[in-house]
Design a protein that fits this description.
This protein has 81 residues and is an all-alpha fold. The protein folds into 2 domains: 42 residues; 38 residues. Helices cover 73% and strands 0% of the residues.
Length: 81
């Protein structure tokens, strides 16, 4: 029986801390085992999904270019005024 009021395990760690550590490790292991198969080693998507993904990328790129041009016009106007 330990002399302190908290129970300890064989390594001298408090039992609650060890349980919390185990929960964190098991949670991370589950997360990795759940996510990795969905991210790595997948076949290409259906053709419609790749088309939609390409259109979204194009939309994002053109929006960024438009905002850049708008910002450069704003600086030109302030230079003259």
């Amino acid at each position: 029986m330990p002399t302190c009021r908290h129970q300890t395990n064989s390594r001298g760690l408090p039992a609650r801390r060890e349980q919390a550590f185990r929960r964190v490790v098991l949670g991370l292991a589950w997360l990795v085992l759940y996510l990795i198969p969905g991210i790595v080693g997948r076949d290409p998507w259906k053709q419609d999904e790749t088309y939609t993904f390409g259109r979204l990328c194009q939309l994002i790129e053109t929006e960024a270019e438009r905002r850049q041009e708008k910002a450069s016009l704003r600086t030109r106007r302030t230079d003259f005024g």
